[in-house]
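[Meeting: bench + compute handoff]

Bench side (C.D.) handed over the final construct sequence. Compute side (W.E.) agreed to return the predicted structure before the next meeting so the bench team could plan truncations. Sequence as handed over:
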Amino acid sequence: MKIRRFRVCLLLFWLLSNLGGLPLPPVVAQPAEDSIQESVGKKTEGGVLLKTSSRMTPIPAPLLNTTVTMTISGLIARTTVSQEFSNPSDEWAEGVYVFPLPDQAAVDHLRMKIGERVIEGHIQERAQAKKTYAAAKVKGQRASLVEQERPNIFTTSVANIAPHAPITIEIEYQEVVQYDQGRFSLRFPMVVGPRYIPGQPQDIPEPSSSQHGLGWAPNTNHVPDASRISPPVQHPSHGPLNPITLRIDLAPGMLLQKIDSPTHPITITKHEANFYQVSLQHSSTYADRDFELIWTPLSQDNPQASVFTEQRDGETFLFMQLMPPTSTSSAQKTMPREVVFVIDTSGSMGGTSLSQAKAALSLALARLTSNDTFNLIQFNSVTHKLYSTARQASRSRIHEAQRYVSGLQATGGTEMLPVLKQALVHMPNHENAYRLRQIIFITDGLVGNEEALFTLLQRKIDDSRFFTVGIGSAPNGHFMRKAAQFGKGTFTYIGSTAEVQEKMNRLFLKLEHPALTNITIQAGESTFDDILPNPLPDLYHGEPLTVAFRTTALPSSITITGKQGDRHWETTQSLIDAKPRRGITVHWARQKISQLMDQQTQENDKALFRQSIVDLALKHHLVSRYTSLVAVDVTPARPDAQPLHTHALKTTVPHGMKYEAIFGWPQTATPATLYLLLGSLLLCLTWIWSRRYLAHR
């Protein structure tokens, strides 16, 4: 019997080590330690020193400086991101930089600047663009490539940067500013937060594979492109890197009461004709947190409707933003609710993020009434419910939940799929009374398997409403916004502890007021093609109806109907005075691509809508999952005898996040910790049982 136990234990350990993979915690790509940097003579700000197979002397990677210039005109923002790659070494270099952009950005221009020369980028199918870039790289031609990894994660590759010379890459994109509860806002992400990568590591792909990247995370069966969304991260002890300069030209088209940034100190200069210039107050700003700008119009100047059009190829494209009336029905406010609070307590939430999340959750709990029921779920590597089912929100239970929240700590991985499944399970209501079911999901959203989560939400949301609260200095805006969209709820971004009270109060207004539902748009005998978004979303307190569509004959007016609680709501909007505006076509095309991507997720068939996305992106010169921008200088620059060294440029740890919580022990970026702990436990048991067995022989 003892021999059998010993053999079983050995077999279990072998299976865990080999079949389970027993993966080691991911090592951040940091080949340059302080000792290596000192051997070069100085530490290069923002640089990475790499050893190559051809030489033992470490080579400094290109340095990166970013300049962001925004022009906001009414509801449309046009942004140029200028990335200067400067090569400090004596070797020819290739720089690869993974960076974020707003998840609804329509990226449509690329320019490569070499001295006084400017090379315009061209849109190509992604595979063809990679071939074009690779061929230019081999020929010694200077080239650049911009690829989309996620709607909010992009990669810039720059080949053949000459020794001690810069190459500047300019990327242009367009987006629509957000309006909510009397304020306009715009958020510019600056750093890709480290994602949790679930699943088992896959075989290492060929370097030419489209999924092959230079990140710290291996590709897995759940996130097949993990190596492309996990840029190496600089340890804080090595100092800051990736300096950024930002300037905004703001022409709001209305009188303003206030301009503010809750994330960064800013300088505001007012010019004539209600025009403002906004810039970062500190010249030494580094890309470690998202930037947010908020501007508030005077109360009498709040917009009720904005309508813009653009003509192209015999078609009219229209963009409209309309404010529906605010409900004040007290009967609707007291509708009984079942509220499920979900809070992320994984390692990436360590530091200020968990403090913000706990403060937000405590405020939400205190807002419950005796007519409500509630439950609370925390998750990291495992999931834990406070109650087995939703309980009445009595004063004693609310106090019990708040004590539970105060004791939460951040640790482990971000296993989001299991908790999402639990939160979406609608338990039977024994009261036989209708309850509005709301799920409040508080997280930084730093996961790599977004598509699996979106698919689950689309299939299981039923009549629940899913509200996301993005926490921390660099949350995953793509996940937060899309999850709220699929869950028929809203996304609230909280960037600092100082914002918790104000931002949560705004969310409470949405939670406690009825949505405008069943929205339809009609135009008499006229027909609209591709009204976007489709289906039209529910609207909550203070939210505008924002739509884009195309038509061959613009009608004089449209009729919008919906339901506000149990009451019919209807309004007519004239289109006669619609103002011509450049960029409306691009906005419609970007929204159409987003809709096709959503349908692709829902059908779980990437090939089904691929060609439609490609055709649309090529026609409108847009970067997408299947199209990229590439620019090539036709004149060879690097001599054939000179080697080219590739460098993955590092990013900064997001502000307030603990580096050790992500890349130390225990690990949050992969489930490796769990495997290691189980393996260590089995190894100890094996040793104990073997000693007992030998002692009794």
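W.E. noted at the follow-up: Confidence is low (pLDDT under 50) at residues 6-55, 672-676. C.D. will use this when planning the next construct.
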